[in-house]
Amino acid sequence: MAAVVIPACTSALLLDIEGTTTPITFVKIEEDMRQNRACPFHAVDQTVHTDEEKAIREVVDNVLWQMAADRKSTALKQFQGHMWRSAYASGRIKGEIYQDVTPSIRRWRDHGLKIFIYSSGSVEAQKLLFAHSVEGDVLDLFDGHFDTTIGAKVDAKSYERMAERMGCPAEEITFLTDVTREAKAAQDAGVQVVLVVRPGNTELTDEERAHYDIIASFEQLQVAGRV
Fold it and tell me: Apex CA 13: angle with CA 225 and CA 79, to 5°?
């Protein structure tokens, strides 16, 4: 797969997390809930195993449904924050990051680009992931974080709002994501887009491959006029 050059007008890169900087399989909600009895789901009579299992299953299904639907409810954000805080504090998990991510971000920053994150996970969850990553605390690599409190990732208006918050025109932003619906919304807002193809990501159609710039590694994304 050939290198892709970041448009010369770009002043900021906006990065998705799951499937872009981090493997999609990283978040294991049900496993964490079973290990963490302090999770804030409805009270359960823990002397009745079947009732407890049913309650956990119902909450897991509901959380997965809300995340898949890109919901931005306060309750879901609170749940996500609690789950991540507990898991990281206990040392059970560290934030996984693809090996090509941090060296590439440092290279982009050396060329004067600002780096932002936009994820369905809460800003708190994003910061926990990068502060407790397998490479240590890498939070200083990012200039800001956005979650769906600014709007759904498949809504063009969300990208317009982020551009305003960043203080730059939409056309000066390049968005890296593995989801074509998000890519289309960003393009509709005037944002430049690069699709990231990682193991386990949804397979792209021939039409999508022809339409978008595509990379399999951040190392393939080069700054215009520089190596």
Answer: 160
Q: Over the stretch 128-149, which tens digit does the pLDDT of each residue have? A: 899 999 999 999 999 999 999 9
Could you tell me if 165 and 125 lie in one domain? Answer: yes
Same domain, 86 and 34: yes
In a shared domain, residues 41 and 124: no
Instruction: Give per-residue burial for 74-86: e unless 16+ CB within 10 Å, then b.
Output: eebbebbbbbbeb
Q: Are 127 and 121 in contact (CB under 8 A)?
A: no
H-helix segments, the chain:
29-35, 49-68, 74-90, 101-110, 123-131, 156-166, 180-188, 206-211
Domain that holds residue 34: 26-90
Summarised one tens digit per residue, pLDDT across range 32-71 is: 544 554 444 443 344 445 666 676 566 666 666 665 565 5
